[in-house]
Design goal:
The complex is a heterodimer of chains A (349) and B (295).
Chain A (H helix, E strand, L loop, with lengths): L1 H34 L3 H26 L7 H18 L4 H23 L4 H20 L24 H27 L2 H11 L1 H6 L4 H27 L9 H14 L6 H15 L6 H16 L3 H21 L17
Helix pairs in contact in A: 1-6, 2-6, 2-9, 2-10, 2-11, 3-4, 3-5, 3-9, 4-9, 7-9, 10-11, 10-12, 10-13
Chain B lengths: L1 H31 L6 H18 L4 H23 L12 H24 L13 E4 L2 E4 H23 L1 H11 L1 H6 L4 H26 L8 H14 L4 H22 L4 H15 L14
Antiparallel strand pairs in B: 1-2
The chains are: A mainly alpha (349), B mainly alpha (295).
């Protein structure tokens, strides 16, 4: 009973400021397209949000489950291509096609989970990377021409074919923002659930996990399925927004940019993908007049962050927040009844 | 018959050059426990050095090889010092393999894009190191391919001798086998790591000279050799030098067979298919040692 009371007592304390900050952030995020009517800026933001959906799911597999899945962009592309095929060849409405695209990705992802089970670390990354290369190759050299090969997928109408340009951009913005929110909350919820704890145990202490009877097969399949579904939805949204998709979305350059985003933001944290994606999208736009130099700078930042800021920006922020809260706590004296939990890291920021 | 001869010749040539790039990666993994993603850039840098020496300075092939060796040795040492060495003290607390995989990958991105800035996106033609060739049973074989295979085999043999006979070579092997014991015996691990990576990079750089002369020098010239070397080291088992050598020729054979029978387009997917199967049935490659895995 004591433990329960402590938890109940702790919950509002930890949430108060954080929740209101979060709500403010969401509200600001939601009204942004009403403030900016510049179509270029909105296009960049929608693209950034779609990448954020992908990064959220990749962060789940790479950071939280600790599986070196470097085939995520192939899963993302599979979602886009399957949704496109469904839209072109059946009468299924676009929103359902997006969900079906995500489901197709989820299925491929679960199948990919099987061969990775016996592998460790680097071997996993190679296997998943090989998978991505094969998928890319099949898409490019598809003998029947249903994927459009190197020229990209045939044009699809997308989610909002009847709206004007600006209204369409706003509609996409809100749609993708909603998906981002759902995906982020889902991942945050999963991280602290039984599934998330099991995955982190398999990651950090495989021997202990085995001794406690945690089945790596079951949990890894679940992790791959969930992340594959989210990534597939991201791919389908990319297809709808651009009205097409090419195999270049899964090349080495996008992969290095996405990995840089995850690492800079902070692998395995909830806010990391948001911070990293926002930061890198901004840098890419700032350097748009200097083509070519952007990747040099991204690589340098990646190196500096890994060496000097372990845990990424999110890790840095949570340490700073913890310092502030302990400083405040010292000032006010320990709050009654929660002395033990007062200095807990605000890891779920 | 001519097909079989073509496959065999191509196996030896491809296998040797794969071996030269991959053995460096395997050496690095065995010693430092990192998968060095910057080895592809070393191949690229080597081919640009060859272009610089042969075209800009109008010098000869021997000088090109020596220059590539020295330049990539320095670059490899430098890469280790900026992307791996600073992380060494945190080895126990972080996922070292993943973090160094990411940092060396970052270095590779920087190198490739610096080359793009300096040399431009267009490929530079590197003249052949030696011209002419012979015909073996109806198959043309350039002297350059023979030189490439011969030099690679000689360098791999020299590396073997270095590891087996010299003090530094023994020190590298000692560190690979048991880090703590090597430290206790007075092996200067802090200096050994950069040197190992420099040496491996220099081998990749020499491979770059040959590959540049065979094809061309360009900022992306290192991508394909890197992928092929990754396939080879995984196939052979990371950290195992004999395994890497067998794998190099096995992969060379598979690739040559694929080129001769079904054409160049399908070679890489065939290789990836093979590697998928190998990893499913032998999760540590042909010669890898399961106890090397963290558990």
């Amino acid at each position: 009973v004591n433990a329960v009371a402590a938890r109940v007592g702790r919950l509002p304390r930890r949430s108060g400021a954080a929740w209101s900050g979060l709500v403010a952030l969401i509200v600001v995020g939601a009204i942004v397209p009403l403030i900016f009517s510049n179509q270029y800026i909105l296009t960049v933001m929608v693209t950034g949000l779609i990448i954020l959906v992908l990064n959220t799911s990749w962060n789940f597999v790479l950071g939280i489950a600790g599986v070196w899945n470097f085939g995520m962009l192939a899963i993302y592309a599979i979602g886009g291509y399957s949704a496109g095929l469904i839209m072109l060849h059946t009468g299924i409405p676009a929103p359902i096609a997006v969900v079906l695209g995500g489901t197709a990705s989820g299925i491929f992802s679960v199948l990919l989970a099987f061969p990775t089970l016996r592998l460790f670390g680097i071997y996993t990354s190679l296997l998943t990377f090989s998978f991505a290369q094969v998928v890319q190759f099949v898409i490019v050299n598809d003998p029947k021409g249903i994927t459009g090969g190197t020229f990209g997928f045939p044009t699809v109408p997308g989610l909002y074919p009847h709206l004007g340009p600006l209204a369409q951009l706003r509609a996409y913005y809100w749609t993708v923002l909603a998906v981002v929110l759902v995906a982020t909350f889902a991942v945050a919820k999963i991280r602290s659930s039984r599934l998330g704890i099991a995955l982190q145990t398999i990651r950090d202490a495989p021997g202990y996990a085995a001794a406690r009877g945690i089945s790596p097969l079951k949990y890894r399949m679940l992790a791959f399925g969930i992340s594959g579904f989210i990534a597939g939805v991201a791919g389908a949204l990319y297809l709808c927004f651009n009205q097409s998709i090419t195999s270049s979305v899964m090349g080495l350059t996008p992969m290095s940019i996405d990995v840089t985003m995850l690492v800079i933001g902070g692998l395995g944290t909830i806010s990391g993908p948001l911070i990293g994606t926002a930061f890198l999208t901004f840098i890419q736009e700032a350097l748009i007049d200097y083509p070519g130099i952007e990747l040099t700078i991204l690589g340098t930042i990646l190196l500096l962050v890994v060496v000097f800021v372990p845990g990424g920006v999110a890790g840095l922020l949570s340490r700073a927040l913890r310092r502030v809260s302990t400083w405040v706590a010292e000032d006010e004296g320990p709050p009654p009844g929660t002395a033990g939990s007062g200095s807990e890291p605000l890891e779920a920021v | 018959v001519s097909n079989i001869v073509a496959i065999l010749i191509s196996t030896v040539v491809l296998g040797s050059i794969f071996g030269l790039v991959a053995i460096g990666m395997s050496l690095i993994y065995g010693t430092l426990r990192i998968l060095d993603m910057s080895q592809g850039s070393m191949v690229m840098i080597g081919s640009f050095v060859a272009w610089g020496v042969l075209v800009l300075a109008n010098s000869n092939a021997v000088f090109a090889i020596v220059a590539a060796f020295l330049v990539t040795f320095v670059m490899g040492t430098f890469t280790q010092l900026i992307s791996v060495q600073p992380l060494m003290p945190r080895r126990g607390t972080i996922d070292f393999e993943m973090v160094t995989f990411i940092t060396t990958f970052g270095v590779a991105i920087v190198f490739a894009n610096l080359a793009l800035q300096i040399f431009g996106p267009f490929q530079k033609n590197v003249p052949p190191l030696i011209s002419g060739g012979v015909s073996i049973m109806g198959q043309d074989l350039s002297y350059q391919s023979i030189l490439m295979a011969g030099t690679s085999i000689a360098l791999i043999a020299a590396l073997g001798l270095f590891l087996a006979r010299t003090r530094w070579g023994l020190a590298i092997r000692a560190v690979a086998q048991n880090l703590d014991a090597a430290r206790l015996m007075g092996v200067p691990v802090g200096r050994l790591y950069p040197l190992t990576m420099g040496l491996a990079s220099a081998l990749a750089g020499i491979a770059g000279v040959f590959l540049g002369a065979q094809f061309f020098a360009s900022p992306t010239a290192g991508d394909l050799p890197l992928l092929e070397a990754l396939i080879v080291v995984i196939f052979g088992g990371l950290g195992s030098l004999p395994g890497t050598l067998y794998a190099a020729y096995a992969i060379g054979f598979i690739q040559s067979t694929a080129i001769v029978t079904i054409g160049t387009t399908w070679t890489l997917p065939v290789l990836y298919g093979v590697i998928l199967l190998v990893l499913i049935f032998r999760p540590y490659g042909l010669k890898g040692n399961p106890s090397e895995a963290r558990l």
